[in-house]
Amino acid sequence: MNHGASSSHRLKSPQSGSACTDPTCCGLITAHHGVEVEVVFTTGKRRMVRVKRSSGHVVGDDVEVAGEMLRRLPRRTELRRRDGGGGIHLVAANLDVLGIVVALNSSPGFIDRAIVAARVAQLQPFVVVNKCDLDDTAALLADLHRIYADSLPVFAISAMDRTGLAPLQAFLNQGHRGVFVGSSGVGKSSLLNALCPEINLKVGKVSDHNGLGRHTTTVSTLHPLSGGGELVDTPGFRDFGLVDILAEELAIHFPGFEEHGEVSCRFRNCRHRTEPGCAITKLVESGQIPADRYAVYLKLLGEVEADQSEARSKGWKN
Ligand SMILES: Nc1nc2c(ncn2[C@@H]2O[C@H](COP(=O)(O)OP(=O)(O)OP(=O)(O)O)[C@@H](O)[C@H]2O)c(=O)[nH]1
Ligand SMILES: [Zn+2]
């Protein structure tokens, strides 16, 4: 199994406002192995640099290297997730796009949560509907098109049959650095294999006691795509609690509500629930916002509020 970035990896110069102009010391972290990271320099050379586990460096970080010292340059974006125990993890730095992979067995509500998380982190979300070789996927695809196609790109593919990949590749080749998120078994590894054949990730290996399958990757790695753009492969990134979002801001990120972002509710901090003079609930009443989408919004709002109050009570930084 090869988790190293391919030898053809040529890096863009750090884009994060670095003052560094020396290509022999400027680089990008392309793999994280826990106690050491791989840095690929602007010259194309690469080397491993030892780091403390708590150093905070992640794949996608632009760095300056002097001996064994790493100086991290400012980040354009950070994608963070909160795990079930309340810990906050940085998934990767300087990502541009978040690919939300879904298939027939995906959990409801997942797509909306991921879209909101991406937008809060200033990443462009897109949806990848996998397993389109299965007949039943057609209905799911039609549904997702109806709900999301006006808000973000929706790609229909079969990672297994390698069909539908060209539009997705063209999108990623625009120079986007992305990562895929999705429930267990939707086909994230299969998709990465289809897009970067040199990775050869193990697919569908059932190794945990739940029989749900477990990602066999142990390090985070940045993989360049032959036509441009990069994909981060990171273990265990299947779902995430929302971080960095206020309940009052949810509606402006919620898919399908964006176009109503200008509507003025009576109260500036309106959560669009039962407040008087709420413009969103009026749009629901008149049918301009579908009732089922409003129901999903309310459910997500409840999650954000619960998260916020739990974070407050435990003293987590939100
Ligand atoms: N029919 C069909 N099956 C697929 C497709 N893509 C993946 N699969 C199958 O779905 C199962 C799960 O695929 P993986 O790629 O391991 O899924 P994953 O999302 O990486 O799963 P985790 O590692 O558990 O998060 C495997 O048995 C694959 O062969 C597809 O396009 N069509
Ligand atoms: Zn309102």
TrEMBL record:
In Swiss-Prot or TrEMBL terms, this protein is called Small ribosomal subunit biogenesis GTPase RsgA
Annotated InterPro entries:
G_CP_dom, P-loop_NTPase, Ribosome_biogen_GTPase_RsgA, RsgA_GTPase_dom
Enumerate the spans annotated as EngC GTPase domain. Answer: 93-238
Look up the record and report any one GO term of the cellular component aspect.
cytoplasm
Gene name of this polypeptide = rsgA
Q: How is the cofactor bound?
A: Binds 1 zinc ion per subunit.
Q: Which HAMAP family match?
A: GTPase_RsgA
Q: Which cofactors? A: Zn(2+)
**From which lineage does this chain's organism come?**
Bacteria, Pseudomonadati, Thermodesulfobacteriota, Desulfuromonadia, Geobacterales
What family name appears in the similarity comment? Belongs to the TRAFAC class YlqF/YawG GTPase family. RsgA subfamily.
Q: What does this protein do?
A: One of several proteins that assist in the late maturation steps of the functional core of the 30S ribosomal subunit. Helps release RbfA from mature subunits. May play a role in the assembly of ribosomal proteins into the subunit. Circularly permuted GTPase that catalyzes slow GTP hydrolysis, GTPase activity is stimulated by the 30S ribosomal subunit.
Q: Give binding positions for GTP.
A: 130-133, 182-190
Pfam family membership, one: RsgA_GTPase
Q: Which GO terms describe its biological process?
A: ribosomal small subunit biogenesis
Q: What is its EC number?
A: 3.6.1.-
Keyword set includes Cytoplasm = yes
Task: Kindly list the GO molecular function terms attached to this UniProt entry.
Answer: GTP binding; GTPase activity; metal ion binding; rRNA binding
UniProt entry tagged with the keyword Nucleotide-binding: yes
